[in-house]
Amino acid sequence: MALKDTLLTDVKEIFKTNWNTREGRVVPEAEDIKLGNDAVKLTGVVLYADLAESTYMVKTFPAYFAAEVYKSYLHCASKIIRNNDGIITSFDGDRVMAVYIGDYKATNALRTALAVNHAVIDIINPSMQEQYKSSKIKEEVKKYTVKQAVEIDISEIFVARTGIRGSNDLVWVGNAANQAAKLCGLRTYNYASWATKAVYDLANDKVKTSTDKRAMWEKATWDGKEVYRSSWKWEQ
Fold it and tell me: What is the Cα 85 distance to its own chain's centre?
């Protein structure tokens, strides 16, 4: 049978097969969901930690330097996500996606964003400058600062397994994944953390107000919607 005929048969089967869905209380692993029309539904907070200006960095600096920045950023973001009860779901080039569930999902996600900002400002950038202060690319590095943004939203998520046997992964379908990704476009160098109103309202005050009673997030507007942004840091 030609590949075209096989694909046609497979696609028709996907569209006509009823879905077997169930409510999820934990973030599923790929092996928890079958390759057929099987899915888990859950309400989750989706977070993207996204490195900025990666194209510029790759064009400007040696490959080894760009790789070190990628690794440093994704390493710190990943450890902070896990330290705040987030589940890493995927890596996409210069960014990592995570899902938070449970009673403190919004609080944990907002804390993650502030902690990643701390890691970039107080760990990654100083370490980079120290390492390259006497190298042949020191002048270029002096002009460069690692920048990033973390974007967060919440919604019901439909989790299905896609691909083929031996090469497959989970796909996360829901407004939160789309909105969090789109918030990347709001990134400014003054604000590294962005969250929708739904996430902000659900979070505990301890990640919204400092110990001296100052607001750590401020209201902004995006696409006619209320969102919140922050330049604060959270040391972990």
Answer: 14
Mean pLDDT, range 35-54, rounded to an integer: 88
Other beta carbons within 10 Å of 119: 24
Q: Which residues pair with 100 in a beta bridge?
A: 45
- Which residue pairs, CB below 8 angstroms and at least 24 apart, start in 140-143? 140/60, 140/61, 141/61, 141/65
CA angle 131, 133, 134 (to 5 degrees): 100
Cβ(93)–Cβ(49) below 8 Å: no
Domain edges within the chain:
19-230
Query: Which among 15, 118, 137, 41 has a CA at the least distance from the CA of 76?
Result: 118
The tens digit of pLDDT for each residue in 100-138 reads: 999 999 999 999 999 999 999 999 999 999 999 988 898
H or E segment to which residue 219 belongs: strand 218-222
Q: Fold for 19-230, please state it.
A: Alpha-Beta Plaits (3.30.70)
Whether the model clears a pTM of 0.85, i.e. scores above it, the answer is yes
CA dist., res. 3 & res. 174, Å (int): 31
pLDDT of res. 187: 60
